[in-house]
Amino acid sequence: MIRHFTCASAAAALLLAANPLYAHTIVGNRVFPATLTIDDPGVNDELALPAFSYLQAANPDGTPGTTSYSLAWEYAKTITPDFGISIGSDGYTWQRNPQAEGWSNIETEAKFAFYQDPGHEFIMSAAVSAEIGNTGSPQSASLPSDPFSTITPKFFIGKGFGDASADWARPFAVTGEVDYSIPTVTINSDGSYNPTMLTYGASLQYSLLYENSFVHQLPDVFNRLIPAFEGIFSTPVANQGPVIPGEFSPYETTGVVGPSLYYIGQYFEIGVMAQVPINRASGDHVGALAVLDIFLDDVAPTSLGKPLFGAPLSPLARY
Amino acid sequence: MKHASLLIAATGLASFLVSTQAFAHAFLNHAEPGVGTIVNASPPELQLTFTEDIVAAFSGASAVTAGGAPVPTGKAVVGPANTLHLRLAHALKPGTYVVSWHVVSVDTHHTQGTYKFTIAP
Asked: What tens digit of pLDDT does each residue of B10-28 get?
């Protein structure tokens, strides 16, 4: 039974510690940073390397569960200014209590920004991602990858409030993401279930970058920062499996929320976040997320960093 | 050891990247008088400094009073350090002014914006 507790808490920790895809977006005068809990709504040429996460899980009886550290990565490439593909992984995970480690599966994604309004700093996009089973550590590893694939349709939205009449409101922006993850195998060989998951998250951002340029000039030390508050939640919606006494409910929503801070430079972004579990099934105490995100469209604007077809970034700029 | 190597590599990469400053899109980084500030006297010119190199031929600025009346100025000139200089035809009276700017960065991205400053009575 202890092993079941451990597996459940490890699964919750890995789910929450899993890093989404990363990119930054410019719509009109708004820079949406590559947020840590959800992906930003745009399409871009970027390399997230590394993306670090740390989280300690809890067991249903209140004892500490597994502690996980992971280093993830992702490479995103624009095909047209509005359409891009990416490849990445939750990377390598070191788990303690019990000791285990291994590579996560490879994930690919195709994303289309189907609506952008630079004047109102508004963007919507959609994507489909595929986590490819058995592309990480083998089943013989101490922390094997999932032996099945998962297909996930996604929807993204972003809105900056630079068009607000009140100056205090103009630096604010919000982003959101909703995913529906469908495993290709619903029942494993050991009888355990792979639930279909609804994952949803949002960020509230206050851009000191925007405030400095358009509302009130700030000291240099602050004018490239974007503080935010964000969260991500996952709810099993199908194929949850039976309720087992003494284990976390297969119907329970898990998630983390917390403050984050992003520094935006020309060629990179650094982001850090304290992730606070929303309940015991989500974790035992505050974890951490961090990313170094390299803007390839700025590092190599005429080669690697531009779309294969179409003018680079023209729909995102404000003329 | 793996952790240490990764940390060293990440730190080295971050150090390299931190040494660069600018945006692919040119945003207003600093202005004189400052964005949203209150100053005691009229400056001889308005200065707008941007986060990356801008193209003089496609960049400019203008100013109006809070009531929308144009402020007479010379032609905007791009100087060193990505700074746009807008010489005022005469000293500004106390009041709030709105500055509008538009620039094209050297990598062809366009940005524009407005901000206010106030000259105290």
From this structure: 444 444 443 333 345 788 9
